Amino acid sequence: MLQLLCGYSKEEFLAKIAVELERALAHRAVNGLPGDATPRVLARGRDWTVSDVVCTSGPRDRSFEERHSWVSIAVVAAGSFQYRCKSGRELMTPGSLLLGNAGEYFECGHEHAAGDRCVAFQYAPDYFEALAPPAGIVPGFRLGRLPPLRALSPLVASACAGLTGYKNASWEELSILFAGSVVQLASGVSRSDGSNSAAVAARVTQAVRTIERHRDTPLDLRSLALESRLSPYHFLRAFSRLTGLTPHQYVLRTRLREAALRLTDSGSADITKVLDVALDCGFGDVSNFNRAFRAEFGVNPRTYRLQAQRRFCE
Q: Where are the domains of the chain?
């Protein structure tokens, strides 16, 4: 469902990320530091977190028993390591997914090579159960790993792209897609979500109307799903299939269209600041607004306004 843009492949993103891992390992070697795992939070919500975790441990570093506090799905972006959990011992390689149940103990070791880098998605247990497709699937992983599967390649590539600063989807949406997809694949269940049924189409339509009415206010994916009486995973898939955009993309483009209309308004063009337009249309800061506007319309907001003024004067 999510696809990479600009011709980049998953392998190209993984190669770029591997360079950053090598730098971290070189820094450790030069400074004589012990190996450790350093997480950097990329995004978080009330019941979920996404982190960039760089580990510089190697064969000489001792592995310690740890505990998953939340449900965990970690995408291995670079490097490799051994993962031991309740279900057994697994070799984690780039493109594979580490699976962990809340409350279970585990160990990670680097017996054969140093370093790895992962994108770690963590979920509060109750929230994770609500994300899973309501198709009779019992929550809880029986496996410790999913190998690099073709069905997961678009999601893995999107997660890795996020590490490089390439934002083609929101982290919240990716976390939901990973949760639903991994639960189905790990349980061996493949089931249609009924996204094209009349009832679901009606609910998505109401969500679209809600976005149009409240496009300048914060819109939480979970709230939209709740209003639609669908699980977040089901809602995200249904919305994307029926509209051609994810909710994040739809909200962004709705706000950008509103901003373009305000900038085109010749009556207020000289007195309304670009910052005011950005804030009025729901953008938190002007730099983010400028980047999104240029990506959508090919020019920055000020240039767009000047071009609109010229058209009105012709």
A: 10-187, 198-244, 254-313
